[in-house]
């Protein structure tokens, strides 16, 4: 069931990537230099930004997106897919020469994946593009960013959102190194997974105690609240004021973990936007992410509100 605009509560703006995922399923992930036979191929809608927007929309938020696609068939299809979800794409620009972003995804039979992203038009999302769509930032409650678009545009978004008094969520994915020092004070909710938290904090994160140490370090760097997602081990929340809490994850049989993190972020942002209590927001986000790992593909795996409610 689609949620009508009138019944949607919070308003989420996602600034981020839009990709077409080329997905091969194979018995295992290939090692360097190895060629293996796959047994299934699919082409599906993906991109961390677009996945997060879809997750927020399917759970019931009013969603708008700022991004950049190419002037090609993939770009037109990706925008159509988002509009079908009720997402306002007036902030999605079309680049005249760069192709729409593509992700080469390999999924092993035990549900693990590797992803290589070729940014294409996502790399053309500039601070000027963000500024052109300031009205969309003004109109939302929560702004969500990731790192699949140029860092200067992410920083411009966070700075503008902060100036306009919006709640900011940063999913630092993919993480390649520590963030510039001036970024974290612009972030209300920093949501890395365990790998990203380790890279950002420069500390090992293999357990809850590692997550707590990394979250503390990132909070000391200026992030108001930190949530480290730990896959099957759940999530660790460190709120402003220093109180920490572990949230165990629902245990499921993984088919494909692609976009599980994006589902968590989108649902969490939607709950924040509709002013739900933090614990409930994390809980719902975990339940939605758990459903997504039982299904194949990025956007095809993201559940609706009814599916999350019926699963509990
Ligand atoms: O987080 C999953 C996403 O990462 C995929 O959909 C792929 O497009 C890459 O952006």
TrEMBL record:
EC number: 2.7.1.15
Active-site residues (renumbered): 262
Official protein name in the record: Ribokinase
The UniProt record lists the keyword tRNA processing: no
Secretion signal, residue range per the UniProt entry: none
Subunit text: Homodimer.
Entry note: cofactor: Requires a divalent cation, most likely magnesium in vivo, as an electrophilic catalyst to aid phosphoryl group transfer. It is the chelate of the metal and the nucleotide that is the actual substrate.
GO biological process: D-ribose catabolic process
Pathway(s) annotated for this protein in UniProt: Carbohydrate metabolism; D-ribose degradation; D-ribose 5-phosphate from beta-D-ribopyranose: step 2/2
Chain ranges of the Carbohydrate kinase PfkB domain: 11-305
Ranges in a coiled coil: none
CDD domains: ribokinase
């Amino acid at each position: 069931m689609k949620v009508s605009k009138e019944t949607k509560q919070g308003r989420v703006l996602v600034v981020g990537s839009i990709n077409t995922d080329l997905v091969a399923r194979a018995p295992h992930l290939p090692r360097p230099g190895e060629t293996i036979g796959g047994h299934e191929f699919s082409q599906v809608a993906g991109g961390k930004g677009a996945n997060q927007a879809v997750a927020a929309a399917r759970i019931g938020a009013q969603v708008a997106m700022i991004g950049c696609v190419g002037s090609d068939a993939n770009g037109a299809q990706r925008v159509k897919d988002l509009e079908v979800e009720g997402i306002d794409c007036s902030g999605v620009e079309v680049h005249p020469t760069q192709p729409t972003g593509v992700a080469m995804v390999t999924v092993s039979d035990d549900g693990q994946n590797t992803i290589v992203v070729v940014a294409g038009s996502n790399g053309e999302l500039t601070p000027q593009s963000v500024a052109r769509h300031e009205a969309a930032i003004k109109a939302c409650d929560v702004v969500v960013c990731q790192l699949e678009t140029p860092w200067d545009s992410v920083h411009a978004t966070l700075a503008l959102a902060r100036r306009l008094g919006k709640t900011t969520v940063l999913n630092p994915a993919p993480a390649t190194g520590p963030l510039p020092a001036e970024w974290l004070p612009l972030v209300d909710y920093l949501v890395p997974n365990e790998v990203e938290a380790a890279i950002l904090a420069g500390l090992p994160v293999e357990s809850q105690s590692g997550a707590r140490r990394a979250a503390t370090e990132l909070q000391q760097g200026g992030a108001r609240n930190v949530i480290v997602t730990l896959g099957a081990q759940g999530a660790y929340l460190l709120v402003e004021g220093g109180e920490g809490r572990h949230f165990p994850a629902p245990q499921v049989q993984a088919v494909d973990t692609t976009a599980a993190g994006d589902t968590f972020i989108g649902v969490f942002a939607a709950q924040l936007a509709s002013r739900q209590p933090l614990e409930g927001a994390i809980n719902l986000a975990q339940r939605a992410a758990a459903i997504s790992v039982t299904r194949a593909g990025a956007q095809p795996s993201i559940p609706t509100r009814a599916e999350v409610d019926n699963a509990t």
